[in-house]
Amino acid sequence: MARSYELTRTTGETDISLRLNLDGEGKADIETGVPFMEHMLDLFAKHGQFDLSVKASGDIEVDAHHTTEDLGICIGQAVKEALGTKEGIKRYGNAFVPMDETLAQVVVDLSNRPHLEFRADFPSEKVGTFDTELVHEFFWKLALEARMNLHIIVHYGHNTHHIIEAIFKACARALDEATAIDPRIKGILSTKGLL
């Protein structure tokens, strides 16, 4: 059974078409008008072994806020829908990723109880033209719409680009682990029988 989902979301601020395959090969085709997010989503697809296609346009003449936020919403919705009933998935994922002087850790629980714990500070307010505060916005919307418990911890680092890149890679790897099918798991990995 293919674990993929395709959606289109149009608002007064953005227009996004997206396709996500959880069981992919790390292929990415990303056009958002926000170059830094394109770079991060390319890394996210590659390191999670997801196939991700995104075509987005937004009011980037104002800033990248709406586009970045809505990308989190759409990817989160696609993850949730692609998982279907969640039968047989590992549910939990944990990844440490170093990036030069930086070490980031991301822990995921696909619990159907959305929460973001974000323990990261960015030395710079911008990477190029990208506002670094939008990283939190993206991951909060991702966690909310995927209905996952998402913990992001940067243990140390001083280069803002490295910190954000390590977060995206660690998130991808943790999510890949959490969404993986384990043949030993019968049904849903919960004593409640439901996630």
Can you offer a commentary on this structure?
The strands form three sheets. The protein has a four-stranded mixed beta sheet, covered by helices on one side. It has a four-stranded mixed beta sheet with strand order 5-6-10-7. Strands 8-9 form a two-stranded antiparallel sheet. It is of the alpha+beta class. 34% of the residues lie in helices and 31% in strands. 42% of the residues are buried. The chain is globular and about 50 Å long. It has four helices and ten strands. Helix 1 (35-48) packs parallel to helix 4 (160-179). The protein has one domain (4-179): Ribosomal Protein S5, domain 2 (2-Layer Sandwich), CATH 3.30.230. The chain has helices spanning 35-48, 65-83, 134-146, 160-179; strands at 4-10, 14-21, 28-31, 51-58, 92-99, 102-109, 115-119, 126-127, 130-131, 149-156.
